Amino acid sequence: MEKSPEMPPGRVLGLITPAAAGAAAAIGATVAVEWAAGVLGIARLSEKFVPMAPSTALCTVLLGAALLPRRPWSPFIRRASLSASGAALLLALSILAEHALAGLLGLHIDLERLFTPARESGLGFVTGRMSPVTALLLSALAAATTIWRGRGERDRLPAACSQALAAAALFASSVILLGYWYEVPLFYESGIIPVALPTGAACLLL
């Protein structure tokens, strides 16, 4: 009896990466639709939890789209992938800078009011706004994707930088999800906007 040929590891990875990116983008797109409709389901999963912010959903969709093509063979696909990851990086860094200015100088710019008004949850945190921890996570993931799409597929040093950023984001999102799993989610009583459960899942997929 002949053995069925095994699929090469590279081909398996080539199937897993776009599937995970597509799943993350689907989470982001669903949350964006929920915010637009005013009905939050997937966005929070429980009334006790902070929902994924609209800005986070947009970044997730952009990064998922950037990672969908495993290898962007054509220049157009490469440019589109770089544009999507670059836009996510710009948005995440802008919100991270906004949190830094608010914390250090008391300067509140609130770029995210363009998406939705801020709302007090009654549980000690604001909803509709990206957590600074999320902004840092998405900045790392967007930078990793941008570097990889730009030079990492051809040069070793950019590839190493991209992999290090992605590994750090993977570790952080795993810790966040473990906190939810053991019912001790992080930052809920710290005065910092917590990272939403679907955000942790999407970052793990990315």
Protein architecture, described:
There is one protein chain. The chain has 206 residues and is mainly α. Helices cover 63% and strands 2% of the residues. The chain has six helices and two strands. It has helices at residues 9-37, 54-67, 75-105, 132-152, 156-181, 197-205; strands at residues 119-120, 126-127. The chain has a two-stranded antiparallel ribbon. A hairpin with a 5-residue loop joins β1 (119-120) and β2 (126-127). α1 runs antiparallel to α2 (54-67), α2 (54-67) runs antiparallel to α3 and α3 packs antiparallel against α4. The longest helix has 31 residues, at 75-105. It starts with 8 loop residues before the first helix and ends with a helix. The model has no long low-confidence stretch (mean pLDDT 84).
With strands numbered from the N-terminus, the spatial order across the biggest sheet is 1-2
Indicate the radius of gyration in whole angstroms: 18 Å
> Treating each run of at least 4 consecutive H or I residues as one helix, how many helices?
6
Biggest β-sheet: count, sense, barrel?
2 strands, antiparallel
Give the strand tally.
2
Structural class given helices, strands, pairing?
A: mainly alpha
Distance from first to last alpha carbon? 40 Å
Q: What's the overall geometry? A: globular
Order of helices and strands: HHHEEHHH
- Average pLDDT number: 84
Question: Which runs of at least 5 residues are low in confidence (pLDDT < 50)?
Answer: none
Strand percent estimate: under 5%
